[in-house]
UniProtKB/TrEMBL annotation:
Protein name: Dirigent protein
Oligomeric and partner information: Homodimer.
UniProtKB keywords: Apoplast, Secreted, Signal
Keyword Signal: yes
Domain of life of the source: Eukaryota
Coiled-coil zones: none
Organism of derivation: Salix viminalis (Common osier)
Length: 246
């Protein structure tokens, strides 16, 4: 009768054990752990203390005043009513704050409708959405609660790009840099943010300091700003819940 030596028996048992572990992991993957941290990001366009600026595209030109008749012309409309262009075409700015419609992470809260009740998309000369391709540079404040006046945790610096022709998505690439970290603690984020959706997900692509070699994902949810701190710009408030794996 053929007998296995002790080393061979050990190897066979080890291989069988690995197969069982891999099988169980495949059919019952480990659930996501508790969030590593939660941040609140304040993206402010216009006003006296903006944290974001469109720098390219048609909306970037409107924002910087390079397009004639793009800004309010001396009268104050009802709150939230958009001011038409000089030729009576679809408006390009929000009547409340003068920010170009379609700009930013909230689209400046504009949803124009035609007589059939369908959402209108402002089109450029090439037939694509007016905001398509607009790059916005950000230096947004990160806090530990929704209130802009709450404890500041750091800054989110990077860009977002209007990446869909209808203006409903922004490709985001930014680094969250945390204050007080001894080794320059930071996290890198990349992905698509869907304007108006209940939740979007970004990838965590790495980090520095205590977040070195971190990977994972972040859940982004749009919130209504509390208004406890008055600002004269257009603010978009994002709740960022970060799940990490090392």
């Amino acid at each position: 009768m053929f007998k296995l030596s002790s080393p061979c028996i050990f190897i066979v048992v080890l291989i069988a054990t690995l197969h069982v572990v891999l099988y169980e992991a495949a059919i019952d993957p480990a659930p996501a752990g508790e969030p590593a941290l939660e941040l609140f990001m304040h993206d402010i366009l216009g006003g006296s203390n903006p944290t974001a600026r469109p720098v390219t595209g048609l909306l970037g030109n409107i924002y910087s005043g390079q397009v004639p008749f793009a800004r309010p012309v001396g009268f104050i409309p009802p709150n939230g009513v958009a001011i038409p262009n000089a030729n009576g075409a679809l408006p390009t700015v929000n009547g409340l704050n003068g920010i170009p419609l379609g700009t930013g992470l909230s689209g400046t809260n504009f949803a124009g409708q035609n007589p059939n009740g369908q959402i209108q998309t402002q089109l450029g000369p090439d037939g694509l959405g007016l905001g398509f391709g607009t790059i916005t540079v950000i230096d947004d404040v990160l806090t530990n609660s929704p209130d802009l006046g709450s404890q500041q945790l750091g800054k989110a610096q990077g860009v977002y790009v209007a990446s869909s022709a209808d203006g409903t998505t922004q490709m985001m690439a930014f680094t969250a840099m945390f204050e007080g970290g001894e080794f320059g603690d930071a996290l890198n984020f990349y992905g698509i943010y869907k304007i108006g959706s209940a939740m979007s997900r970004l990838s965590v692509t790495g980090g520095t300091g205590k977040f070195k070699n971190a990977i994972g994902f972040a859940e982004l949810r749009g919130l209504i700003p509390s208004g406890q701190v008055g600002i004269d710009g257009a603010q978009t408030l994002l709740r960022i819940t970060v799940h990490l794996k090392y």
